[in-house]
Amino acid sequence: MIGRLRGRLEYRGADHVLIDVQGVGYIVFCSDRTLAALPGPGEAVSLFTDMVVREDLMQLYGFLTLMEKEWHRLLCSVQGVGARVSLAILGALGPDGVGRAIALGDAASIKAAKGVGPKTAQRVVLDLKDKAPAVMAMGSLQPVPESTGTAAPAIEAAAPAPRKGAAAPVSDVAAQAAALSALSNLGYAPGDAAGAVAEASAGLPEAGEADLIRAALKLLAPKG
């Protein structure tokens, strides 16, 4: 399995890029957001990758962060969601937006992605709700650093897995991950903590870790 590519961007297509790695060109399919974030042709680029191998197919899918890659893997585990639909969801919402939508049970946001019907959107929310906290906690991980200077490009083995409009601005994903960890340490159930952090971050776009924790605790406080 190829888990990461680092080389030179040779070509950018509508849904993929061609990356030259030591003289070998790899076609890597990416979401709209990932494509938009990549540098121009001739520049150094580094992507986490997920490889799909079937009898009649061998394709690579590329991601800027491990969080984005893990959401792709989980989305593809849902019945009715293939790799292309997963990329459409990630392109419409971004990895943090996907986590927020699932944690809040917001199937409508998932349905906004191209090719996603209401039943599939609801299935995504129901099937992945319990898995959202672990992936959201990966938000503190940094994107893959691009290769610089004259360092040789490389392929690295995969580690085991543990535009339709822009998403609404939210608090920094690292702050969300830290707040989620803090709430979990306080004894809150992962699903409840993830939902509270997602709701708090949507209402406080510029909030840091401490403010997010306070806001989430208010949401988790017993009512009445």
From TrEMBL:
Residues 1-62 form the DNA helicase Holliday junction RuvA type domain. It comes from the Bacteria. Residues 179-221 form the Holliday junction DNA helicase RuvA C-terminal domain. Its main location: cytoplasm. InterPro entries: DNA_helicase_Holl-junc_RuvA_I, NA-bd_OB-fold, RuvA, RuvA_2-like, RuvA_C, RuvA_C_sf. Belongs to the RuvA family. The RuvA-RuvB-RuvC complex processes Holliday junction (HJ) DNA during genetic recombination and DNA repair, while the RuvA-RuvB complex plays an important role in the rescue of blocked DNA replication forks via replication fork reversal (RFR). RuvA specifically binds to HJ cruciform DNA, conferring on it an open structure. The RuvB hexamer acts as an ATP-dependent pump, pulling dsDNA into and through the RuvAB complex. HJ branch migration allows RuvC to scan DNA until it finds its consensus sequence, where it cleaves and resolves the cruciform DNA. Homotetramer. Forms an RuvA(8)-RuvB(12)-Holliday junction (HJ) complex. HJ DNA is sandwiched between 2 RuvA tetramers; dsDNA enters through RuvA and exits via RuvB. An RuvB hexamer assembles on each DNA strand where it exits the tetramer. Each RuvB hexamer is contacted by two RuvA subunits (via domain III) on 2 adjacent RuvB subunits; this complex drives branch migration. In the full resolvosome a probable DNA-RuvA(4)-RuvB(12)-RuvC(2) complex forms which resolves the HJ. This is Holliday junction branch migration complex subunit RuvA. It comes from Sedimentitalea xiamensis. The lineage of its organism: Bacteria, Pseudomonadati, Pseudomonadota, Alphaproteobacteria, Rhodobacterales.
